[in-house]
Amino acid sequence: MLQSLQAQFPQQIALSLSNDPTALTNVLNMLSANDTATIKEGERLLKPFLKNPPCIASLINQLTTVVDISVRHHAALLLKKKIGIFFPKFGSNDQANLKSEILQIMIREPIKSVAVAIAGAVAVLTKTIFAKNGQWPEIFTILMQLSHDPNENMRSLNYELLGQLAEQVTKQLKPHAETLATMFVMGCQDAVPAVAKAALAATSSFIVELGNEQEVMVMEKVLGPMVTVMRNCLQSGEEETVVEALDVIQECCFLDQPLVNNHIQTFVEFTLEIIRSKSYESPLQQSAGQTLMNIIENRPKLLAASNLVHPTLVVLMEMIAKEDSSAAGSLFSFSSNKDGVLDDEEEDDGDYSPELDVQRLAQTIIDTMAMAIPSKHFAEPALSLIGQGMSSADPQMRKAGSAVLGVIAEGCADKLRELLPSILPRLLQLMQDPEYYVRECACFALGQFSEYCQPDILHFNQSILPVIFQTLDDPRPTLQGTSCYVLEYFCENLQPSTLRPYLPLLMGKLATLLQSTQRSTKEMALTAIAATAVASEKDFLPYSEVICQILGELIFNTEPDLFAIRGRALECLGHVAVALGREHFSRYFEAGMRSAMQAVQLGDESLKEHSYVFIANCAKVMGKAYVPFLPELVPFLLGVVEESEVTIHQEGDEDVEEDDDEEDDEDEDGDEEEGDYRLNVQEGFINSKKAALTAIGALAENTLEAFAPYLQKTLQVLMTPETGVLFSLHDVIRAEALSILQFLLLSACRAEGVLTEAASEAVSGSVLSLTAGVVEVGAAVMQAYLTAMNTDRDLVPISYACEGVSGVLRSLGLAALGLPLRPITDSNKATNNAAAEETGPLLNKLMETVHNLLQEKSPAQKLAKKMELQHLAVGGTGGGDADDEEEEDHDNVVIDSVTDLVGELAKVMKAEFVPYFRVFHKALLKFTKPSRPHSDRAMAIGCYAEVLAELGGAAVMEYAEVLLPVVRVGCTDTMESVRRNSAFCLGVFVESTGPALSGYFLQMLTWLHPLCVRPAGQQVVGGGADVGGADVDNALSAVAKMIRVAPAGLIPLDQVLPVLLEALPLRGDTSEGPSVYGCLVGLLEANDPATVQLLPSRLLPVFLQVFSKDSTAMDETKAIVVRALKGIAASSAYQNALMANLANIADVEVRQMIEMAIHS
């Protein structure tokens, strides 16, 4: 019979299957065959049959007459697919009969899987009926009947049907939400596990479908019973069911409705039970961990208000402590064994390690807590537990305490900066702990501090560097690699003078690590060498030949397993270029470029990224040497940037249950059949594209007019609506595209002669004359920046846009503010961008935008704030602090860039900025409140100082009454950054207003006096900025400015000068040298009695120290001192004192240099 069917035409097949139930049974049976060809043939035969309404009756007949379960199951699935399409085509009597019959068939079906499939058909039919405004009251009757049926199979079927109805007819079920919720509670509390599981699934479906609808709140009563069912499932080993339910809890956490708020404690405790148990498989633990993280991220303040921070941390720390493997290893993906030695790197990286899984999960959750929960609620309990762990006699607890300290470093950076003096001594002790895994975690924590506690961590370099060097000698690769991680972030920000004494020892150790057989160790050593080179600058020259010889061998590795090392080596070579400069690096340039150009052809994303980073770094040094490479390099980089981020995944051949008939399309409710759009989120792809953009920007910035032929294409690639990189779905790519726009404009300015090599920036107070080409590019660039600042929903692109505007202002000055608001190239082309549709000078739009950002009202800032300010006042959970919003940390990413832009606007506009700043002042002042984090206060006070320095005395007086109390408090702050900016701000007040504020001078001296006493740790001459002391330097400068402008006799010089001289030389901010030393020289030249008296014993040694080899004094400062020394040498009264002090200089070379300067 099947053979005769196969020979028929499609219409004949359809007729045969409709008229011959046995033939249909046989074809349906083919769908269960073990042979793919048979299944495909069955699908082919069914396809014409399913195109006609009679198929419904035939499938119903199969369900009622056929004994074979698989046939009935396939019939039910096909009925679900077709019943919604053909039901409207039946007459009213047939429709009524079908509705009645299908309910009865479902109830009578003895096999659960078939009954569930029929329930699916019922749900689709329900949707079809309601979509046509029809009625089917029997569906609700059957639900109530089944929910109370004594037969457990019927009760279970009820919830199976409810779950499918929830997906199909949510809108029609909403009026019955209260009744359904009661039914779900009853089902979850059913004594029969199968019924409870079905109720759990149905509840989950209904919650998901309701989403943010108000009716979802009635489901709150079901959440507790849901957890009970999940616990029972855990006992019976049904982990997959629990995973599915946890997915729904995660969805609930994202809702604006406070559905989960009254159950936070239950969910936290339940997820922690799963995470800490060794009885469950990894997928379940990962799901529980993700659920807990969703709770933390979306209800951070509620978690704190529920007093769950401390108990959660206790559990997570215990988990880290109980595992035998290295906690730092889990963070760095080092697969370390119990001896701290890396496993054989030739083996698969996929070796499963449940210990590492558990520790990674615990650490990730703690990191989420540190990032999401306000510091005032998280830092204290976390640091208390960490302190207990680090001081414990149990090495496992010491390991856990150190690991957690490192994990929270990013989220609690502000608080940790304040506590560095008390935390670091113990941490450095643990880096010498007898147990390797404690040393490893302590080293990791120090690396985190080095990354996130800049620059304050550098002040402790004399204690930290020796300990790091000792750790580099540890035989365990994990410790060697972690030490290199510390060096990467610690050394890259050190001053050359700080690093100089350590350089021979450090480079020797790193060169040794480069010979390691462990690839990971060699990679980390390369990153540490790169950071060391950048920090040491020209001091790196003696080591460059040996290092570059080693790098020269590594950058041409062709083995795929060595591509990571090749990339790191090439990146390192680029940093060496930055350190050495063009003159000394030129001989290595050709080999580096040859390696980079070859590497981008090898298809490895990481290697490509490192190659682009090398190009970007070298461009800063080699400049116009890149011109010959541009014709090949720029089109290639643009090609990388243009790579699509979205791919279309085409579905395979559709089976009979998902055919693409026209009738089916009517039932798909707009479902696309063109494939599934998928975003490329691979880290390598994103980083490679970002690095290519960086390289393009560096080439434009450093080849300038030579880049002009590529400007139009580059702007097109970046700015084309929807497809341009500025419209990327990845925020880091959008941000990088924004950052390079300023360099494209700079290239246009140089190409059109607006700027020249001699005049590379706008002169203050003058307005550049812009060509039409520069106006076109400039308007497009500024428009892109304004668009991002006003509409981007991520913080990083907004920050980069602000920095870009600052860069344009530095280049074009006032002319930038006169650019028109219009689209890029075609002013007639329609645009969907509201900001782009505005016309006229952009000044007002820019000021409006800056004010909006200062008020934290951009879409991205509102979204970030919304995540912070989750509702607390629900069902007795209590309200939040009234001051929470005011005391929240600002989004440092954006606000810091905005305040920098405000300072740049003041520099460009001068007095014209006064009316705008009056508006900005109100938004800025809130960041100076004592309750704000120190980073907020430092930022705001620094911004005031930068702006007022440009606006003139009258404007400064306008803010004196408000700001003087702020800086008075700031001078006593525990953090150097706040003290420094407060002292600087006082100096600006004095310098800008002259004697107008002299009535406050004696008070100011009392505020500044404690700052002028340099701490013991800064007493070592030559320590440079890395021992701190910028606050002292700014205070000394403020005092010097008061001395200069104060009315005669107001400042008690006999008391002030000894304190000032005792604090010299300057340590952290040598730019204050001209002010401080200029004041002293001025007093000397005026024959001030107090100054003259101090000349032989105090003043001359201070002057001569400026010329020591360890001095970091500016050339301008040295010139001022030379002028004074010449006057002293010409005075018979002081010649002997000068000669005596010169004789005390042990360094003959320095003494001779000073003598030559005096007599020149």
Description:
- This protein is mainly α and 1160 residues long.
- The protein is built from 58 helices and two strands.
- It has a two-stranded antiparallel ribbon with strand order 1-2.
- It is elongated and about 130 Å long.
- It starts with a helix and ends with a helix.
Number of helices: 58
Q: Overall mean pLDDT score?
A: 87
Residues in helices, as a percent range: 55-70%
Poorly predicted spans? 333-352, 651-674, 824-839, 870-886
Instruction: Please list the strands of the largest sheet in the order they lie side by side.
Output: 1-2
The largest sheet, given as strand count, sense and whether it forms a barrel, is: 2 strands, antiparallel
Gyration radius, to the nearest Å? 36 Å
For the record, give the distance between the C-alpha atoms at the N and C termini, rounded to a whole number. Answer: 117 Å
Instruction: Count all strands and give the number.
Output: 2
Which structural category fits the helices and strands?
Answer: mainly alpha
Shape: elongated
Strand content: under 5%
